[in-house]
Amino acid sequence: xxxxxxxxxxxxLILLCSPAGGQNTRPTPDERYTVAFASLAPLNTDxxxxxxxxxxxxxxxxxxxxxxNASFSPDGRSIxxxxxxxxxxxxxxxxxxxxxLRRLTDDPAFDDQxxxSPDGRSxxxxxxxxxxxxxxxxxxxxxxxxTVTNHPEGDFRPSWSPDGQWIAFSxxxxxxxxxxxxxxxxTTDIYLVRTDGSGLRRVTARNAIAGSPAWSPDGKRILYxxxxxxxxxxxxxxxxxxxxxxxxxxxxxxxxxxxEKWSPRSIAGDRVAYVTRGPDGxxxxxxxxxxxxxxxxSPAWSPDGxxxxxxxxxxxxxxPVRPGPSREPSFRLVRTGIFPSYSPxxxxxxxxxxxxxxxxxxxxxxxADGSQRSVLFGDAERSxxxxxxxxxxxxxxxxxxxxxQGLQGPSTA
Length: 413
Prior knowledge:
With 413 residues, the protein is mainly β. The chain has one helix spanning 405-408; strands spanning 2-4, 12-15, 33-38, 44-51, 58-60, 67-72, 78-83, 90-95, 102-103, 111-116, 122-127, 134-139, 145-147, 155-160, 166-171, 178-180, 183-185, 189-194, 201-202, 208-215, 221-229, 236-245, 251-253, 260-267, 271-277, 282-285, 289-293, 297-301, 307-315, 322-324, 331-336, 341-342, 348-352, 363-367, 374-377, 383-389, 395-401. The protein has 1 helix and 37 strands. Strands 1-3-31-30 form a 4-stranded mixed sheet, with no helix packed on it. It has a 4-stranded antiparallel sheet with strand order 5-4-29-28, with no helix packed on it. The protein has a 4-stranded antiparallel sheet with strand order 6-7-8-9, with no helix packed on it.
């Protein structure tokens, strides 16, 4: 099995005593290439189902791959969610008892954020199958697909109007793009569009981050979260829950104070629920009532407000060494820590130990399957970044120093 590695221009060498040094092999025609890669995505996210205030949460369809972005059907009897359990991200539907699991989309593209229409006959979702993030609709009885939006920028978080005639969504199509080092910050706004793609209307325009739209039960208002962004710093400011009147564009801020507030929903009439993040994050209700504390991502409530679903990360062990889905049979993918490098014989692996290059990293060496890990090099002050194995297998080269000085300041060494 042949393995690939990724390297940089490097500053120091570690000498290794290896009986296999200098022995390199060519793959036979029936062998597959193995490519190690790093990802910032969670290792594993599971969906949880809980009472409406977040209490009594329990795992729902626990699976070693990613399950996330769940939502209830209009009758509250089933749940739609995104999963990578069969490789690419697709949307599934299952009863609230965990039975009758059904795959709704099956495409190599990225399908996510599925929500069922008020009559339960259609699914609106985000897909990259057109080469960009657009809103699509799937007719469940016929399997017919159609695009609702078609724009080179991103469209996200579709939300059906109560009468099923409109979809609200967030988009960066009119974004004010702000440059920070190698990153670009983008503003997002809330838009409305008819389910046939006509009648596009921009609802917000405040040079902010507006997302996760949700309709009021009477269809007259849109709830969303909004965060101001600074032109001087890459950090976004506190977010608030906002309601906007679709007839008058009258804007009402429903919350105050600091912290991150996300994903508002109207439940049980005019009651508004949302979640906060941080050390004391959890379920909140407009008016000051607090629910259960904990990390609860992308919450959704049943129509009667008695249940909620959300996802959270369920595995934080780092760095991973685990198979990843591959579309090409001749290439085997393995997700690892950042800057992986295989030995020439493919039986050993070196990676950095932290999730990000801007953190202080040491170098880990291990067997190719992730077993027998040990620290090969570490320094109390400096970071050792991007290790790479020599072609002979007797040395490992890496950069050592202070990286990302634009964020951390210049090195004093």
